[in-house]
Amino acid sequence: MRSNKLLLLLGVILLLASCKKEDEPAIVVIDTTPYILNTYDLPLPQIAEDNKLTKTGVALGRRLFYDKLLSLDQSLNCASCHQQQFAFSDTSRFSIGVEGMPGGRQSMAVVNMAWNNNEFFWDGRAHLLRDQVVKPIQDPLELNLAMATLLERLQNHPEYPNFFMAAFGSSTITEELLGLALEQFCNSIVSGDSKYDQFLAGTASLTESEERGRTLFFAEFNPGFPDISGADCAHCHAGKNFENDQYMNNALDADSDMEDLGRALVTENSSDNGKFKVPTLRNVALTAPYMHDGRFQTLEEVVQHYNSDMVMSSTIDPALIYPLNNGGLQLSDQDVQDIIAFLNTLSDETLVTNPEYASPF
């Protein structure tokens, strides 16, 4: 319902702009009505003071997110690689851009971005979300559109100047305002209504397998006491958002096999070799393939990696050295299936069906 109201609001803005005599300038109402973010039971996020969410800002960002005008040949949009039905991720290992070439890394899910406070992208090369959202537009492997060309398209569009005026008080469209609008929409995408959230609220029950998987997920690895030893997943995937906003080497490759140095490409510090952003596990069952390079197709492969297939390197996260030196996590086949059963409880049906996040076109 709120989705329809936002579209109606933009329609009213256009109507007001069109109801004028030919020799009179368009009158557009600047609307800074706050957009009320549904944070469910997540802690309150730190939204930038200079870009608080407004109804018009979020609606504009949503329109831009789905507009193919943002790609060179107008065949793709942001949603091409961040699809709502897959929790705003991509099922392709490497997304294909407008030139038919694959990207270099798997598309990250655009969910709960408002809780991300430590750079953006797998390697953290964008400081703020507003910086991140404009880079794929200009990337030759993605939308491949020069910013100057895009701004000209938007400025000459019959509707966008009025939309920007309503949202930001300026009909002159700039890269900065474009980034702010997309940032607002991305920050509005919240996942917090999974079965696990309902379990914590006392409105749903976990199956025996899901409950056992939950215990294994949060319990620390302790080979000396196998009956209580767990998978220690929460060391990296912690808190209500199941991530820690850090960059870590999760034992995928030996030093000599690292084809992608990750964070080190940004910091130019070899101590960051092979480190990548720890992603949220919310909706993880919907976001295959996995890892920065999409090398794993299934959750079974992911759990087995930590169970028995980790590889030593000079920058491996210290928490992984202990289980690696003790023959892995020593999980049974049933343990693996139970952990996966728990991970499935993190899927949020509300997120993937919410009309507020769907295309307005």
Describe this structure in words.
The protein is mainly α and 361 residues long. It folds into 2 domains: 2-191 and 350-357, Cytochrome Bc1 Complex, Chain D, domain 2, CATH 1.10.760.10; 195-345, Cytochrome c-like domain (Cytochrome Bc1 Complex, Chain D, domain 2, Orthogonal Bundle), CATH 1.10.760.10. It has helices spanning 2-18, 55-66, 78-81, 129-132, 135-138, 147-155, 160-168, 175-188, 195-200, 208-218, 264-267, 299-309, 318-325, 333-344, 349-353; strands at 247-248, 276-277. Strands 1-2 form a two-stranded antiparallel ribbon. Helix 1 (2-18) crosses helix 2. The longest helix is centred in the first third of the chain and has 17 residues, at 2-18.
